[in-house]
UniProtKB/TrEMBL annotation:
TM segment ranges: none
Gene3D superfamilies linked: Jelly Rolls
Every Cyclic nucleotide-binding domain range: 9-78
InterPro entries attached to this UniProt entry: cNMP-bd_dom, cNMP-bd_dom_sf, Env_Response_Regulators, RmlC-like_jellyroll
Species the sequence originates in: Streptomyces kaempferi
One Pfam family in the UniProt entry: cNMP_binding
Record's protein name: Cyclic nucleotide-binding domain-containing protein
Length: 154
């Protein structure tokens, strides 16, 4: 399967690892309003967005789900599939028509277990993504709740 060379995954992973993952990718589309996954459910796949946007959200008792972050072109949707107990920490919904590359988590985890170099590369890529999102969430929380906002970008 041919992927955009600008893909975050293809930039983040060694070429051989990215090519191996793209061999198992499926092209999938979601209409606007489709729920990709629900918080607390089994995390059995992940996606790279080709076009469109996906909102990550969190359930809030007695209220509508709170949007945590909106993801777009070339971004990874889903990281819970890599870490036990393999359940989603958030929910996700297509906020526009979305085209993605979809990956089966069981297959990718098996590939990573069989090839430690691939496993290390995928773990680093997903870990970097989680780290960026955590820093982004921290900054948003500081902007919302700190007396003077987040200050400088760190």
């Amino acid at each position: 399967m041919n992927a955009s060379p600008a893909s975050s995954m293809l930039r983040a992973l060694p070429a051989e690892c990215a090519e191996r993952l793209m061999e198992i990718a499926r092209e999938v589309s979601f209409p606007q309003g489709t729920r990709l996954f629900e918080e607390g459910h089994r995390a059995d796949r992940f996606w790279i967005i080709r076009s469109g946007t996906v909102a990550l959200d969190m359930r809030v008792p007695g209220r509508r789900a709170a949007v945590i972050e909106t993801l777009g072109h070339n971004e990874l949707v889903g990281w819970s599939w890599l870490f036990a107990p393999h359940t989603w920490h958030l929910g996700a919904e297509a906020t526009s028509p979305v085209r993605t590359y979809e990956f089966d988590a069981d297959v990718v985890r098996a590939m990573c277990q069989a090839d430690p170099a691939l496993g290390m590369a995928v773990g680093q890529w997903v870990g970097d993504t989680v780290g960026r999102r955590l820093r982004s969430a921290r900054k948003r929380l500081l902007d919302l709740y700190a007396p003077y906002g987040s200050g400088v970008d760190r």
